[in-house]
Design a protein that fits this description.
alpha+beta; Alpha-Beta Plaits; DNA polymerase, domain 1; Dna Ligase, domain 1; 5-stranded antiparallel sheet; 16 helices; 13 strands; metal-binding
Amino acid sequence: MAAILHLDMDAFFASVEQHDEPSLKGKPVIIGHHHRGVVSAASYEARVYGVRSAMPVSEAKRRCPHGVFLPGNRRRYSEVSRVVMATLGRFSPLVEPASIDEAYVDISGCETLFGPPETMARAMKAAIREATGLPCSVGVAPVKFIAKIASDYDKPDGLTIVSPETALDFLGPLPVSKIPGVGKRAEESLARLGIRVVADIRRHEPEFLARHCGKWGLDLYDKAHARGSAVVCTDREAKSVSAENTFEADTADRDILAAWLLKQAERVGRELRQEGLRGRTVTIKLKFNTFKQITRSRTLAEPTASDSAIFETARALLEAEPLPHPLRLIGVGVSQFGEPPRQLALLEPPGKKQARHDAQIDAALDRIRDKFGKAAIMRGRLFEYERKGERKEEDASGGRGPEAPGPPIGRKV
């Protein structure tokens, strides 16, 4: 019989910060310092004040003005995540990372090596704490979605085992919002049907749920009866790599926007090269100060991990887009990984020489930044964009210049 374990690191980003800086232990740590951004993570000390992930930072500061607000360190979090995933691999070869701080593990048949599920789960929690110094919560169940619910049942540092015999009783009294995929709007729709807890779903026939909720209603019916997938996919590939920034002040200045696109293209290109990926589709994300959000994409003839190719495509997409309102956020991403089928050519395709030249530049920049830090070198084009931004600020201020040095507008969140 299948036994699926779901592991979720507790307040992961904040916990890493508290581990790395012991003076932060016991303090309300909040990842997200940009006043126009959102909270990425909040320690349990901050959650006492109602601070939650995805909350506007301005609201978090209102609720917890004495909190320690940090920008976060994605590279450090990724490093710790790799240690966590490697530790899970010592217990089972079937590990499916679900995000940077959670994973599914198929522990079926591992009893002879590590004992029953509870014993194995405790050993896994202890191994992760030894390897990283961090706590985690674990749920074990016959199917994946119940294991995920179980890992959240007794946080932090929790362990919940749901056997096939107790699965229905475990699910019954839970709010329907605990089922993965049931968001606020779905919860409100179900409430209008008199469905508030999982047991309420079982009072209805599948036809009733399909009539009112469509195909999703049938999936909901199955989940209410503890039916779901127990397949752990070990070869899940990234679907996209992206970067975005929320600005300190709204802007429609295309030079400033281009500067941010170039910075983001460098971040995306570097991550693609580190992961050995190349993508064909470049997408930009624009959020106006009206909070309307749009995306625009272009698919290239050849997959790329080149900073220059990503930037030029993103900039062309931006230039083709009217800006009826200033932007509060811009982002760029690359997707559709892999090589497309193609016919071999006798002659070198146009642009191939330039692509090799760009790859050499990217590789050189990567080596310099690996050795001396990401701020050690800057592309001349980015330097020119920033100088233009500074000159425009000087003109706007009557020649006095900007009050504070630094990038034209915005900070990474």
